Amino acid sequence: MGELEVKRIRQLLDSKDKEYKLSEHEPVYTSEQAAQVRGADLKSGVKALILKTNESKFILALIAADRRIDLKRLAKHINTKSLKLAKPDEVLKRTNCEIGSVHPFGIIHNLPTYMDSSVLENEYVEFNIGVHTKSIRMKSKDLIEIVKPEIGKFSAI
Fold first, then answer.
1. Where are the domains of the chain?
2. Which residues have a Cβ under 8 Å from the Cβ of 27 and sit 6 or more positions away?
3. How many alpha carbons lie under 13 Å from residue 49 in its C-beta half-sphere?
4. pLDDT category, 1, cuts 50, 70, 90?
5. Assigned CATH topology for domain 2-156
6. Could you tell me which of 96, 4, 92, 114 has the C-alpha nearest to residue 48?
């Protein structure tokens, strides 16, 4: 299932003529493991989190991997009463990805995408692309150009 996401993402990036580096590595399940196997700073990683609103709508939130999400702040930002992390089965059904392998390209799954300003602090960002064994490294400005997220402040250290 995840390999389909890898193919979709590569096609998307290639169609936009964006430079990126695809890496294959041992399976990683946390941001810390991913940074270590990539030989990168934790803060250059991007966490892609599927969240569910109180209206049962799904959204994608992107934050720097060295941060944690402030659900109350994001809920206020998007004008919803509450947000919660989607359950593993909901994430898989909505994105074809397991938790820990979700990618930042919400446009592929018609997910409204919100990016925390912490991601902008890095010239390059790295993230899993639908599987636990493949990552992409690319310029953060290129990611923003493709994803077209709404940018706000909703993370905490």
1. 2-156
2. 132, 133
3. 27
4. low
5. YbaK protein (3.90.960)
6. 114
